[in-house]
Amino acid sequence: MKKARVMFAVLLATMTVALGACTGDKAAETPASHITIGIPQDLDDGLDPHKVNAAGTREILFNVYEGLLKYNENGELIPALAEKYEADADGLTYTFSLRQGVKFHDGSTVTADDVVYSLNRLAGKETGEPLEGALANIASVEKTDDKTVTVKLTEPDADFLSYMTDAIIPASNADPETSVIGTGPYKFVSHTPQESVELESFDDYWGEKAHIKNITLKIISNADSIVMELKGGSADMFCRITDTQVKELEGSDFNIEKGTMNLVQALYLNNKYEPFSDPKVRQAICYAIDPQEIMDYVSGGDGTEIGSAMFPAFGKYYDESLNDTYNTDIEKAKSLLKEAGYENGFEFSITVPSNYQPHVATAEVIVEEMKKIGVTAKINLVEWDTWLSETYSERNYEATVIGVDASPLTARALLDRYKSDAHNNFVNFSSPEYDAALTAALSTTDDAAQTASYKQCLEILSKEAASAYIQDLPCYVAINKKITGYKFYPLYAQDFASLSLVTE
Amino acid sequence: MKYYIKKILYLLATLIGVSFLVYAAFEIIPGDPALSKLGTDATPEALAALRHEMGLDRPFIVRYLSWLVECFKGNFGISLSYNRPVIAMIGDKLPITITLTVLSMVFTILISVPTAVLMAKYAKRTLDRTFYVADQVFMAVPSFFLGILLTYVFGMVLHWFKPGGYISYSKDFPGFIAYLIMPSVAIAVPKCAMSVKLLRASILEEADKEYVRTAYSRGNSTMQVMYRHVLKNAMIPLVTFWGMAVADMIAGSIVVEQVFGIPGLGRILLTSISNRDYPVVEAVIVLIAFVVCVMSLIVDILYKRIDPRMKRTDED
Q1: What is the H or E stretch that residue A70 is in?
Q2: Is B315 among the domain residues?
C-alpha cells in the first residue's frame, strides 16, 4: 500500500514537471505571431491552383499563389509578378515585363519559363483541355527574353487581363496537387484533412511581407459552435458570420467588421415555369417585394439594395436608378396580375438551401409579402447539394432565393448567364434584345462602348423582371480585438498578409 | 466450429446488405458528386469529363458490383472529393473515435459498478432511492444535450477546458486525451445510468439465492460475499449490454463529436454525405455495421465463457 502511494506521488511529480515543461516551451516561442482563423469547410477540392473551384479554397490560396497581376481591395488589377504590361491596339497581343528576383516558396527564382509553363498549362496547350476555359482563347505564349513574355490571343477579349491573376507555378513542380509552391506572402506548411491547415509567412516575399508569422486555419464545420469557439478562445477570427451570431458576440473580445458579400441576391424566378413565363407576373412579384423590409428583417437594415444583376462593388456598371424600377406598390402588382389573368392569385414554392440562413430569412419575408397580393408562396428547404443538382443544374424549380457571385471579377461573369443559350442560365431567361446587347458588350474592346452595352443589359433585366432583385448582403467578420488590419475584397480573397497584431 | 462459420456467414450477409442499402440511398437522393466538386461555375463539358473520371456514367448496378469486388480485394476506393484512398482517410480519424469509445467505456465501468454495489447494499433506503431518481434522469438525457450542458458549464463558465479546442493526437497526445474527457463523459453518462439500473437489479436478485446464504453461513463478511460471489454472477446480463453499448457508442459519438468539434469518424461521415462522396460514406457505414456485428459475436462467445449453461443450448 505504501509502495503504491509513493509510486503515485512520483507519477504526479513527473506529470507536473512534464506539463510545466510543455507550457514553458509554448511561452518561449513568440506567441504573439500566431493566430487561428476558423473556416467553415475544408480545402477538400485539392490544392492545385489551376484546378480549384471552391470559393472557400480560392480565397485562402489568394495568400499562397499569385499571378502576373493581382486584385487589390478595390477590385483593381495591380502588377504582381509582372512589373508592367502593354497591350497592342488590336487587343490581340499582350507583352508582360516580369519583376526580377521574385522567389518561389522553395527558394528558386521565378523565370520566364515558369510563366510560359503556367499559362500554357491553364490554356491546355499540351493536353488540349484548358484548365481555365476563358484562356482557350490564347493562341500562343512566348518567352521573348528572360524578362519578357508575350501572349497572343485568337480574338480580342476585354476580360483577358482578369484571368492573368491565375497562379504562376514552377515548371519543375511535378505534382502541384500535393506540393504547394507559390510566390505569395504566405507559404503552405501542412494540411490535416477535416482538421486544419497551417500557413507560415514567407521571408523572401517580393512585396510587403506578412506581419503574422503563423496562421492556423481551423475547420469549424458545425455552424452552431462558431460563437462558442470564438468566445472560448479556440479561434481568433471567422469570416461571414450571421446577424444572429453578431448579436451573440456583443460585449465579447471581438470586433465585427462590416462589409458586403458581393452577391446578387434575388428571388430567382424560373422563367419557363407557368405563370412566371409571363413578364407581367414577374413584374407583379417585383412590385410586391420590398427590399428594405427584407434587409430590416434579415440583417437589421444592413445590406445594399440592388435593382438588377449587378452589385455596387462594380462601380462602373452598377446603376442605382434601377433600384426604382419597381418601388413597392401593391395596387400596381394586383392590377398586373389581373392583366395576366391571375386576379385570384396562384401558388408557388420557393426552394432555398437550408444552410444559408440569410436566404432562408429572406424567403420568409417574401412569403408574407406575397400574401398581400393574394399569392401563396411556400418555402421548400433543401440541402445544398440537392439545390445544386435539382434547382441549379436541372432547373427543376419554381422560384429560389440565392446569391449569385462574380467569379472572376468581371461583369461578364454576372451577365453571361442570362444569355438565352448559356449553360448556367438557371432562370431560363430569354430575350433576343438582351442577347444582342451582351454580344455587343463582349465583342468590343472600347471601354466606354462596353460599359454602355453592359448597362443596357442590366436595364433589360430590370425592365423584363428576369427575377426579383433584392440586395447585396452584408458580410460580417468576427475578429479578435488583438488583431487589426482586416481588408474586404470585392472578390473571394482573404488577405491574411494585411493582418497584424495590436501592440499594447 | 459449425456455429462460428454460420455466424461469419451472417456477418458477411449483413455487411453486403448494408453496403447495398447505402449505395441505393445515394442513387435515390438528389445530388451529384461531380457537380458538388465543381460548383456553380461548372461547364457541361467539365462536368461530363469529371463524371466519367469518377465512373459515374456507368449504370448503378455495375458500379455497385465493381465496388463490391474491389472491396473483397481490400480496395475501398478513392475519395471523390479528396482524391485520397478511403482507407487512409478513415485510418487518420479512426484512432480519435476509438479513443473516445474506449474512454467512454472505461468511465461507464468505473462509475457504474461501485454505484450499483452501493445502491444494492443500501437497497430501499434513502441513499438508494435518491440515486435511483438521479439514475432515471441521467438515463433520459441524450448525450448530445449533455455535451452542450458540459460545454457551457465547464467550458464557458468554469473554463476547465477550451470549447472546440481539440488537439490532434499526432501533435500532443496528453492534450488530446485531456480534451476527450468531457465528450467521453457525455457519451458515458446515459450508458452508465442504464448499467447501474441493470446491475442493481441483478445484484438484488442474486443476493436472494441460496448460495449466498451458504456463503454467509461460512462466516464471510458482506463485502466478501458481494465481490467474490454475487457480483460475478450478477455481471452476466451486463456483459450483453456493454457489448452492445460499445457499438452504440461508436454510432453515438457521431453526434457528440459535432458538439465538441472533434474531427473523428462523425465529421468525416457528415461532410462526405453532404459532398456525395459515397465511397467514404460506404466505408464508414460498413465499418460501423461491422463493429456492431462483431460486438454481438463477442458477446455471444463471452456469454458462453461466463455461463457454462449457455454452451449446450447453443450448439444443438
Answers
A1: strand A69-71
A2: no
Q: Is residue A335 within 8 Å of A379, Cβ to Cβ?
A: no
Mean pLDDT of chain A: 89
Q: Rounded to whole angstroms, how far apart are CA atoms A453 and A486?
A: 35
> Highest-confidence range of A50-59, A372-381, B150-159, by mean pLDDT?
A372-381
Q: Which A-chain residues 68-97 have CB contacts (< 8 A) with chain B? A: none
Tell me how far apart the alpha carbons of residues A162 and A140 are, in angstroms, rounded to a whole number.
Answer: 18
pLDDT by residue (tens digit) across A276-312? Answer: 999 999 999 999 999 999 999 998 889 999 999 999 9
With 0-12 / 13-18 / 19 or more C-beta atoms within 10 angstroms meaning exposed / middle / buried, residue A186 is buried
Q: Specify whether B17 is located in the same domain as B148.
A: no
- Percent pLDDT > 90 in chain A is 72
Residues of A in contact with B93 (CB under 8 A): 194
**Residue B113 shares a structural domain with residue B254:** yes
* Contact residues on chain A for B82, CB-CB shorter than 8 A: 44, 46, 193
Is B81 an interface residue toward A (CB < 8 Å)?
A: yes
The residue range of the domain holding B29 is 2-72
Q: Indicate if A284 and A177 belong to the same structural domain.
A: no
pTM for this entry: 0.85
The C-alpha angle A367, A369, A370, rounded to 5 degrees, equals 65
Interchain proximity B163–A225, CB inside 8 Å: yes
Please check whether residues B124 and B47 belong to one and the same domain: no
Number of domains in chain A: 2
* Beta strands, E only, A290-398: 304-305, 347-353, 376-382
The segments of chain B whose pLDDT lies below 50 read 314-316
Q: Residue B37 and residue A424: Cβ atoms within 8 Å?
A: no
Cα–Cα distance measured from residue B226 to residue B207, given in angstroms and rounded to the nearest whole number = 8
Residue A18 has pLDDT above 80, yes or no: no
Q: Are residues B27 and B59 in the same domain?
A: yes
- Joined grid coordinates for residue A162: 482578369
- Using CA atoms, how far residue A70 sits from A103, A146, A168, A310, B95, in Å, is 17, 22, 11, 22, 43
- Contacts of residue A392 in chain B, CB cutoff 8 Å? 40
Interface test with B, best of A25, A44, A48 (most B CBs within 10 A): A44
Is some CB atom of chain B closer than 8 A to the CB atom of A233? yes
Q: Which of B46, B89, B275 sits opposite A193 (nearest CB)?
A: B89
pLDDT digit string, tens, across residues A480-497: 999 999 999 988 899 999
Per-residue pLDDT tens over the stretch B256-280: 998 998 999 998 999 899 888 989 9
- CB-based contact A262:A472 (threshold 8 Å): yes
Interatomic CA distance for residues B64 and A66, integer angstroms: 42
pLDDT at A303: 92
Which residues, at least 6 apart from B56, have a Cβ–Cβ distance to it below 8 Å?
A: B32, B33, B34, B63
What band does A121 get if pLDDT is binned at 50, 70 and 90? very high
Residue in B49, B163, B276 closest to A234 by CB: B163
| ipTM score | 0.81
User: Is there a single domain that holds both residue B23 and residue B157?
Assistant: no
Closest approach of B250 to chain A, Cα-based (Å): 19
> What is the per-residue pLDDT for A31?
42
Are B91 and B283 in contact by the 8 Å Cβ rule? The answer is: no
Nearest of A282, A333, A246 to residue A465 by alpha carbon: A282
Measured between beta carbons, which residues in chain B are less than 8 angstroms from residue A220?
Answer: 164, 261
Cβ contact, residue pair A232, B164, below 8 Å: yes
Are B290 and B165 members of one domain?
Answer: yes
Mean pLDDT of A103-128: 93
Give the pLDDT confidence score for residue B308 in this predicted structure: 65
Q: Which domain holds residue A442?
A: 264-472
Please report whether residue A366 resides in a domain: yes
For residues B85 and A480, what is the distance between their CA atoms, to the nearest angstrom?
38
